[in-house]
Amino acid sequence: MISQAGNSSLRSVYTNTLNESKNTKQASATVSQQGDTSKIERIKESLDSGEYKIDLDALSKKIAEELL
Fold this sequence. Notes:
Layout: H1 4-34, H2 38-49, H3 56-67
Helix pairs in contact: 1-2, 1-3
């Protein structure tokens, strides 16, 4: 069973991931106006196609930090 602290950490990471996704879309619009969209477009395409990979190493470290 996951503790309440674990639940809140996971919820926080999930929320941060969703916010990053929204920010990426907003940044894409801004950078599109500037002309350099290669990295943002790749991220956007991977999000849209469902192929976006989560860095599990960074995620687990963040969860561990939140628990301590």
